[in-house]
């Protein structure tokens, strides 16, 4: 038996033993993936309590440039990690905004009051975002009317146009072209973005919901600014 063949057999035996004795270690080794390169373009993340405790200093060193934090949902809910995340982000150079999860069946004024209590005077730097993605057994007419009421009052309060976040099929049925004058955050998890042809003013593309970012121990949404020349300037807002 040649020395080379003997060496190959020994290596193979070591791998087999590792599989049997330390399966978790081996699984981690073979499933490890390189982290994305965030130095090309303007990338961000959006987080909630689902991401647990985040090391914002590591996030800031990763190449990520902006963050949106879930603040509120509906009329009474506050994300339990919002204020902790906000304090952590503000200790970095990252640009930061907050978002509200819009509940289609809830009173828009009461929802707005909940959101404003959590964002005004908190030194946020990016315009707020409204996440609109669940129908909650409401008609498109009801959703549009309540969303318009919410957005109009929010813009009056902060002096900036808020972002609308949604995905293609929901936009087509429940939002539509009458909201094209608002900046849009489009969610689609593909190699290339394929938005509805009539959807305009897309500022941010959420291209993954399973991203890996240093400092975040769970999968996280990855987002990208589409107009790299203008960058984040179009979304900056002081309120």
Automatic annotation (TrEMBL):
This is Lysozyme. Transmembrane segments: none annotated. It comes from the Bacteria. One of its GO terms (biological process) is peptidoglycan catabolic process. GO terms for molecular function: lysozyme activity. It holds the Pfam family Glyco_hydro_25. It comes from Pseudoalteromonas caenipelagi. Belongs to the glycosyl hydrolase 25 family. The keyword Hydrolase applies. Keywords: Glycosidase, Hydrolase. CDD domains: GH25_muramidase. SUPFAM superfamilies: (Trans)glycosidases (SSF51445).
């Amino acid at each position: 038996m040649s020395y080379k063949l003997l060496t190959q057999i020994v290596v193979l035996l070591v791998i087999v033993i590792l599989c049997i004795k330390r399966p978790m270690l081996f699984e981690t080794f073979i499933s490890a993936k390189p982290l994305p390169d965030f130095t090309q373009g303007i990338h961000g993340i959006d987080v909630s309590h689902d991401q647990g405790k985040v090391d914002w200093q590591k996030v800031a060193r990763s190449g990520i440039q902006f963050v949106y934090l879930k603040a509120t949902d509906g009329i009474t809910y506050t994300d339990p990690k919002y204020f902790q995340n906000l304090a952590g982000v503000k200790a970095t150079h990252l640009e930061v905004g907050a978002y509200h999860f819009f509940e289609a069946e809830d009173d828009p004024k009461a929802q707005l009051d909940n959101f404003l209590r959590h964002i005004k005077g908190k030194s946020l730097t990016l315009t707020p975002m409204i996440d609109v993605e669940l129908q909650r057994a409401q008609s498109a007419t009801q959703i549009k009317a309540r969303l318009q009421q919410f957005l109009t009052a929010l813009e009056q309060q902060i002096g900036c146009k808020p972002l609308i976040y949604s995905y293609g099929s929901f936009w087509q049925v429940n939002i539509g072209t009458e909201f094209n004058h608002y900046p849009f955050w489009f969610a689609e998890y593909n190699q290339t973005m394929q938005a509805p042809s009539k959807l305009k003013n897309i500022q941010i593309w959420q291209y993954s919901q399973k991203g890996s970012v240093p400092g975040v121990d769970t999968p996280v949404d990855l987002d990208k600014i589409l107009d790299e020349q203008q960058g984040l300037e179009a979304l900056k807002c002081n309120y």
